[in-house]
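The material for today's practical consists of a large collection of protein records. Getting from the letters to the tokens is the skill we practise here. To make this concrete, we reproduce a full record directly below:
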Amino acid sequence: MKIAIFEDNRKFRESLEFVIVTSTDMELCGSFEDTHRLLQRIEALVPDVVLMDINIPEINGIEATKMIKEKFPNIQICIQTVFEEDDKVFASLCAGASGYILKNTPADKILQAIREVGEGGAFFTPSIAKKVL
């Protein structure tokens, strides 16, 4: 499974990269600090799953999710963020995200989220799942 990361926090992005490259069933195909040339990057990489930060330079993660899903409907998107506000959760889902995890999610759960979203399912951090329900 090919994974692309869009995350502006360098340390967190590097942590995500490490979690993915040490996984035996995932390949990191790209990692970016902003959404500059978003659609060109996605078209060149063709990831199965995109991990998308909401508060990222250039195009915010919610709008970026919408753009990706419009042009590449088969690419799955998992939002990873610090925001738990209802409006951000629901805007992300309406934009086409299949997952929503908080940045304090343990590495094993991040991998679980990527796998579930990549297989066509959905994954939410427990506090987010409660909001959705």
